[in-house]
Amino acid sequence: MIIVNVGRSWPKAQSEQQRTDAIESGWPIRGTNLPSVDMPEEVPQLFGGKARNGAMLEDLTRLVGNLDFLVAVSSNVVVDVRIIDHWDVFDDRLAFKTSVPSWRASVVGERLPADLAWQRGESWPLKTAESYWLDDVIKTETVHVGGYTVHLLPDGTLHVTLPRASGLVTVGSHDQPVPAHRPHAVRDPDAEAVEELETEKAAIRVWEKQQESRAMKRQQS
C-alpha cells in the first residue's frame, strides 16, 4: 500500500471532490531534482520514459510494487483509504486514479502503528508498506445498525462510525450512561438521509427520558 500524508491539504478540503484531489494528485518522486543521465533504452521504457535517472527509476520501481491501496493520513490517523485503479506521472509528480472500497468506514479513524507513523522531523509525504496492517483492520468484526457502523478491532477496541450530525451515548452497568470515547467516533461524510438522523435523535431523546424517569424512581424508593 501507499500511505500519503495529507495533514496540510485535508483541513482545507470542503467537498468530496476536494478531498479526492488532496489524496490523488501531486505526490513527489525522489530524484526529480537530479539531472538526467543516459540509461539503457529498455530501462526507462518500463515507466513510459518517465524515469530520467537512477533515483527516479528506483523510486518508481518501489512505488509500483505497492500499487494496491492508497491510505491518506493526517496526524497519523487515517482520514481516507482508496483502491488504486491507475497511476501516472505529470510534471514530475505522481498522480492516482482511485475508487472507494465498500469497507472504507472500517479503516477511517484508525491510527497508524508506530512502525508506519510519521515521526518528528520526517517530512517526505509519501511512504510505501506491505498491506498486512490494513488487511488486519479490514478483517475486523463489523455490524451495521441503522446508519451506524460498529467495528470490533482485533485488539478489543470498539470503533463506531456515526451518521452525520448524530450523537453517541455509551451505557455501562445497570443502564447507566457513561462518557463517550469521542476519539473513536468518526462521522461518515457519505452518510445520507436527514429523516433517518432525526429518527435516531428522537430515539435517543426517548431513551434519555426513560433513564431520567428510572433515576427519579430509584431516588424516591
From TrEMBL:
Recorded superkingdom: Bacteria
Name by which UniProt lists this protein: Uncharacterized protein
Organism: Promicromonospora thailandica
